[in-house]
Design a protein that fits this description.
single chain; 337 residues; alpha/beta; 7-stranded parallel sheet; 10 helices; 14 strands; disordered C terminus
C-alpha cells in the first residue's frame, strides 16, 4: 500500500513508518520538524517537510494518491494548551480537516487518526470505555475531541473513506524526547542515567496506562491488514503508579537511588483504558511486558547519553508549528526534569 504518515519523524510516528516499511508498504513521512528529527526517519522512506496546516500538504495528498493516511502529527501538551489554545485549535483541528478534505478529494481509502485518553470526563469508575462520557478539561483534550468529531462527520458523509480513531494511553519507548510536563519514563531514564534524582510531585500514587511503542506500531500495521472502523482505546488495561514506573526504570538503570518529592499538582488521579473493543475487533493485544519495554527503553537512552554530545532537553517544548506526535498523549505532569 501507499501510505502517508504525518508526524513520522517523531517518537511514535517514526516507529510506525519503520514498521510499515518493513511490511513492504510504500511509505511517505510528512513532518515539519518542530519536535521530530530527520534521523528518526527510517531508510527507504520518502520524507516531505511540511506543516499539516499548509495547503501544500493537501496538494501533496492529491498528487500522490495515497491509499492510507496515518495521522500522528499534532500538539500534545496539556499545560501548554492552556497558554496557547488558538494554536492547539489550529493545528489539531484545522490541520486534521485539511488532511481530511484532501483525503476525500484524492480518493484515500483509509484514514487513521490518533487521539488521546484525556478526552474522557473524569470519573471514579475505571477503566475508561469508548462509550464513556467525553468532557475534556483542557484545550488539548477539546481540540482532539473536536478533531474526532470531524473525522466521524467525514466518515458519515463519505462512506468510501474508512476511518479509525485510536485513543492512546501513555506510550513510551526508544526515541521519546524529554520535554514539557509529561513523558515520565523518558524523564526518569535520562535523570537516573545522568546520576541525578528526579523530583516526583505529590506522593507518586497517580496512575496511567503505559504501553510500549512497539505494540503501538504492531497495532497500526494490523489496521492496514484488517481495516476496522470506529473509535478504540489503545493501552494495556493495567494502571501503574508514578512510583511503580520510577522503580522499574531505576531497576533497569541499576540504581537504588530514591526520588525526591515535591508538592502535588492538580491533575487527574487515575487513567486506565479498557481495550476489549480493539481486542474483539482485531484480536490484538500488547505483547511486550512493561518490564521488558522499560529495559529496551533504558538501553536506548543509555546509548544516547553515552554517544551524544551534552544537551539540555528539559526546557524544550512545542513551538506554534505542528509537532511530530513525539510524546505520550496523557502525560503525568508530576516529575521535574
Amino acid at each position: 500500500m501507499k501510505v502517508l504518515v504525518t508526524g513520522g519523524a517523531g517518537f511514535i510516528g517514526s516507529h510506525i513508518a519503520e514498521a510499515y516499511r518493513d511490511r513492504g508498504h510504500q511509505v511517505t513521512v510528512l513532518d515539519d520538524f518542530s519536535t521530530g528529527v530527520p534521523a528518526n526517519v527510517p531508510d527507504g522512506v520518502q520524507l516531505v517537510e511540511l506543516d499539516i496546516c499548509d495547503p501544500a500538504a493537501g496538494k501533496l495528498i492529491e498528487r500522490e494518491r495515497f491509499d492510507v493516511i496515518n495521522h500522528h502529527a499534532g500538539l500534545i501538551s496539556v499545560p501548554e494548551s492552556f497558554r496557547i489554545p488558538v494554536a492547539y485549535t489550529t493545528v489539531n483541528v484545522v490541520g486534521t480537516v485539511n488532511l481530511l478534505e484532501a483525503a476525500v478529494r484524492s480518493g484515500v481509502g483509509q484514514f487513521i487518526f490518533v487521539s488521546t485518553s484525556v478526552v474522557y470526563a473524569e470519573q471514579e469508575r475505571m477503566p475508561y470505555r469508548e462509550d464513556d462520557p467525553t468532557v475534556p478539561t483542557s484545550p488539548y483534550g477539546v481540540s482532539k475531541l473536536a478533531a474526532e468529531e470531524f473525522v466521524n462527520m467525514y466518515a458519515r458523509k463519505y462512506p468510501s473513506l474508512r476511518t479509525t480513531i485510536l485513543r492512546y494511553g501513555n506510550v513510551f519507548g526508544p526515541r521519546q524526547r524529554v520535554y514539557g510536563e509529561g513523558n515520565l519514563v523518558a524523564a526518569c531514564a535520562t535523570k537516573l542515567l545522568s546520576g541525578d534524582r528526579p523530583t516526583i510531585f505529590g506522593d507518586g500514587t497517580h496512575t496511567r496506562d503505559y504501553i510500549y511503542v512497539g505494540d503501538i506500531a504492531e497495532l497500526n500495521c494490523r489496521l492496514l491488514e484488517q481495516p476496522v472502523t470506529g473509535t478504540f482505546n489503545v493501552g494495556t488495561g493495567i494502571e501503574r503508579t508514578v512510583l511503580e514506573v520510577y522503580r522499574e526504570v531505576a531497576r533497569a538503570v541499576g540504581t537504588d537511588r530514591e526520588p525526591l518529592f515535591g508538592p502535588p499538582r492538580i491533575e487527574q488521579a487515575r487513567i486506565v483504558l479498557s481495550i476489549e473493543r480493539i481486542q474483539q475487533a482485531l484480536g490484538w493485544q500488547p505483547s511486550v511486558s512493561f518490564s521488558e519495554g522499560i529495559a529496551r527503553t533504558v538501553a536506548w537512552f543509555r546509548t544516547q547519553i553515552t554517544n551524544a554530545s551534552p544537551r539540555d532537553e528539559a526546557s524544550t517544548e512545542h513551538t506554534l508549528r505542528c509537532s511530530s506526535g513525539a510524546g505520550d498523549t496523557a502525560g503525568v505532569g508530576n516529575l521535574q526534569r
